[in-house]
Amino acid sequence: MIFVKSEQEIALMREPNAIVRDCLKYVGGHIGAGMTTKDVDALVENFIRASGAEPSCLGYYGYPASACVSVNEVVVHGIPSERVLREGDIVSVDLCAYKNGFHGDGARTFCIGKVSEEKQKLVRVTEECFFKAIEGLKEGTPLYDIGYRVQSHAEANGFSVIRAYTGHGIGREMHEDPSVPNVGHRGTGVRLKAGTVICIEPMIAAGTFRVKVLPDGWTAVTLDERPAAHYENTVVIREDGVEILTL
Ligand code: MF3
Ligand code: CO
User: Fold this and answer.
1) Do 96 and 104 contact (CB within 8 A), yes or no?
2) Separation CA 210–CA 165 (nearest Å)
3) Is the CB of 77 under 6 A from ligand 1?
4) How far apart are CA 37 and CA 61, in angstroms?
5) Ligand 1 in contact with 60 (CB < 6 A)?
6) Phi and psi torsions of 76, nearest 5°
7) pLDDT of 117-132, one tens digit each?
8) CA 82 from centre of chain
9) DSSP letter at 85?
10) Which of 11, 115, 145, 203 is the most exposed place for a label (fewest CB within 10 A)?
């Protein structure tokens, strides 16, 4: 069931989402070669707690950290570890903050030093996929138009769209209905109502879209071990467009 939020609820959601936005910016200013993915997680946890919020991911179905830190072939849900970041890596950092009884959620993919042209293009196109998805998005838009737009842009650039994970509604729970796939047929799916809050999160791969989950039960990697990127914002559907809460 899709919960349409009242203006009051949306007002309460602004704070956790602003914390996510600021935390992603903070991580972008501090991440670099030589750090471990655990160091990145510590930046995230400290920032979120210092902002008076809680890291929603920590303990979520047993997830052991505050951020998902996914390097190169890791698509999503990379568990922070002693893995050291090196020049040429791309690193997606996905984080959620809980405050005022609501969650905020966002992700960015950062380049460590100079990265290959393919990776640069992958990161850029993944971000563009989000902005294509929100072009014209407003009350009454069929849900799967989002996936259609993401898929069209990714595939036109020679990349593939991860199917095994999707965007989602968000609110009092981190994951609410509807599921928001990144592939789809134009003109299909429920028509979105004003006040619906969703996370749109293209996950785009340089090679195959097929993934496997490592024995840790979380870390999702591409089957061909080629890189993948991730970009996510939380948005409110409005009568005349969208309001992005994490930008
Ligand atoms: N932020 C992720 C999302 O977009 C959730 C991470 S799953 C967790 O859905 F278990 F790590 F929290
Ligand atoms: Co999300």
Assistant:
1) yes
2) 11
3) yes
4) 21
5) yes
6) -150, 170
7) 999 999 999 999 999 9
8) 23
9) P
10) 11
CA angle, 78 then 28 then 162, to 5°: 40
Q: Contact 119/90 with Cβ under 8 angstroms?
A: yes
Peptide bond into 178 cis (omega under 30): yes
The residue whose CA is least distant from atom 8 of ligand 1 is 57
Give the SS3 label for residue 126.
helix
211 - beta bridge partners? Answer: 222
Alpha carbon 233 to chain centroid distance?
A: 6
pTM for the whole thing?
Answer: 0.98
* Atom number in ligand 1 closest to CA 94: 1
Residue type at 38 in one-letter notation: K
pLDDT tens digits, one per residue of 188-238: 999 999 999 999 999 999 999 999 999 999 999 999 999 999 999 999 999
Which residues, by Cβ under 5 Å, contact ligand 2, an ion? 105, 199
Instruction: Give the number of C-alpha atoms closer than 13 A to the C-alpha of residue 33, restricted to the C-beta side.
Output: 8
Q: What is 179-240 written as a DSSP string?
A: EE-SS--TT-SPBPPTT-EEEE--EEESS---EEE-TTSS-EEETT---EEE-BEEEEEETT
Give which of 154, 165, 238, 247 is closest to 204, Cα–Cα: 154
The CATH superfamily assigned to 7-241 is Creatinase/methionine aminopeptidase superfamily (3.90.230.10)
Q: Domain-by-domain residue ranges, the chain?
A: 7-241
Q: Report the C-alpha gap between 179 and 169 in whole angstroms.
A: 7
